[in-house]
Write a structure and sequence with these properties.
37% of the residues lie in helices and 16% in strands. It is of the alpha/beta class. Helix 13 links the parallel strand 8 and strand 9. The protein binds ligand G2I. Ligand G2I binds next to loops.
């Protein structure tokens, strides 16, 4: 897979944008309740300050590593299983379900007050051969629906949001669905079928479409996903959220990332950053990503794709917030600051942006 490698966004000039309400906020921030600031000293609590979550991908096999689990439980209040809820693990042969590895993560989350994102129900990758070799549409439809229903039933009440369909769109300029057994055997309707089945299986769960390289507004892939979500909302197909994986190159997010998030949110869905990692973890690039989310009221949370660099799938790119020893990297402080939390030097750099309206949008310096 690939990701964007664009330059960082220019910083925003805020001084002239601060209105009277914001001034009041600034006064409060400067004078009141130091204890409240102290409580904002982790990523999760800082994000919670604006009603958002801050999560990470977790591997079940690492939960016994005390450095790993200490960071997990101190910093993160949302968990996405990195591989354990994927089809090759959960239904390795037809009708034989294995939830053991994912259960370990879900149990950990319950014990530590963390919420779960379910990842993922229908994806062309990490798909067992018995599924990808199905050629009959009725068979594949019933296999897909049974997989969705069984996995969602198993985790009913324990998973806040599901990536119902992952990475269904093609890279490049087509804006169309990618080739997959689901697309090739069931046709364009397979995504709608999956979402309708998921809603019936667990009406309380948020249902998300998740993809990568859809962060840049003008890209054909972004437009393809946007048109699908718009069509779903218009026809009453149940979709609640769109996940932007955000596997970025060293420059961080494309300049228009906030626009993309905002445009999707305007369709009536929540948006989330679901798999964030950035080559070399520039603090500016990380801060720009967090700010893009903080500036969109319906951007409800962010998840990084692993805790320490040594946990990352991007070997050698050091793209995460903690080094291999578990120490905070400069990007950590940049993210904490952008979330509105207290940084190591004790500052709380939170200001209200006049473009936010109704106190729901935030810009941070
Ligand atoms: O590829 C990065 C991510 C892109 N979006 C969807 C995510 O689900 C995906 O995550 C990665 C995991 O981080 C990797 O850990 O998905 C990869 C597979 O597509 C995962 O890698 C696999 C290896 O390919 C397997 O060899 C290995 O057995 O991880 C497996 C478990 O360690």
């Amino acid at each position: 897979m690939s990701w964007f490698n664009e330059g960082p966004r220019p910083g925003k000039v805020l001084a002239s944008a601060i209105g009277s309400t914001a001034a009041a906020v600034l006064v409060l921030a400067g004078t009141a309740a130091p204890d409240a600031h102290a409580a904002s000293g982790t990523l999760g609590t800082a994000a919670a300050g604006s009603g958002r979550y801050f999560g990470t991908a977790v591997a079940a096999g690492k939960l016994g590593d005390s450095v790993y689990s200490t960071l997990l439980d101190r910093e993160f209040n949302m968990i996405t299983p990195e591989n354990e809820m994927k089809w090759d693990t959960t239904e390795p042969s037809r009708g034989n379900f294995n939830f053991g590895p994912a259960d370990r993560i879900v149990n950990h989350a319950s014990a530590h007050g963390q919420r779960m994102r379910g990842h993922t129900l229908v994806w062309h990758s990490q798909l067992p051969g018995w599924v990808s070799s199905i050629t009959d549409a009725n068979t594949l439809r019933s296999v897909m629906d049974k997989h969705i229903i069984t996995e969602m039933n198993h985790y009913k009440g324990k998973v806040y949001a599901w990536d119902v369909v992952n990475e269904a769109f093609a890279d490049g300029g087509s804006g169309q669905h990618r080739s997959s057994v689901f697309q090739n055997v069931l046709g364009n309707g397979f995504i709608e079928e999956a979402f309708r089945t998921a809603r019936a299986a667990d009406p309380a769960a948020k249902l998300c479409y998740n993809d990568y390289n859809i962060e840049n507004w003008s890209d054909a892939k972004t437009q393809g996903v946007y048109n699908m979500v718009r069509d779903f909302k218009a026809r009453g197909v149940p979709v609640d959220c769109v996940g932007f994986q955000s596997h970025f190159g060293a420059g961080g997010p494309p300049v228009g990332f906030r626009t993309t998030l905002s445009n999707f949110a305007s369709l009536g869905v929540d948006v989330q950053v679901t798999e964030l990692d950035i080559a070399q973890a520039s603090p500016t690039a990380y801060a720009n990503t967090v700010k893009a989310c903080m500036n969109v009221a319906r951007c409800t949370g962010m998840t990084v794709w692993g805790i320490r660099d040594s946990d990352s799938w991007r070997t050698g790119e050091n793209p995460l917030l903690f080094d291999a020893a578990g120490s905070k990297k400069p990007a950590y402080e940049a993210v904490l600051s952008a979330l509105g939390g207290q940084t190591a030097n004790g500052t709380t750099p939170q200001v209200r942006d006049s473009s936010g309206g109704a106190g729901q949008h935030w810009t941070l310096r």
